[in-house]
Fold this sequence. Notes:
Blueprint: H1 10-24, H2 28-40, H3 42-45, H4 48-65, H5 68-81
Helix pairs in contact: 1-2, 2-4, 4-5
Amino acid sequence: MRILRSDQSPVYGSHLVFGDIYQSKDKTEMTIHHFEVVLGIPFYFNWHGALFSVHRSLARLFRNEGRFDDTCSHRTHQVAHSQY
Length: 84
C-alpha cells in the first residue's frame, strides 16, 4: 500500500491508487493507463521520488507479463530518477 503525501495532487494520488488496485486485480491495460497518467503529472511538480516509484511498478508489471523490453525501459527511467 502506498502512502500519499499531502503535497501531491489529488488527481495524481487517485490515478496512483487506481493503478495499484488494477495491478492487484491483474488488469494490465487499466494498470498501464493509470500509471501512464501518473507519469505525466510529476514533471510539473518535480517529484522524482514519485516517478521512481511508478517506473518501478511498471517494470515489475512488465516483467511479470514477460515484456522484457518494456521492463528494461522502465528500469532505466527508474535509475535516472533515483539520483535526485
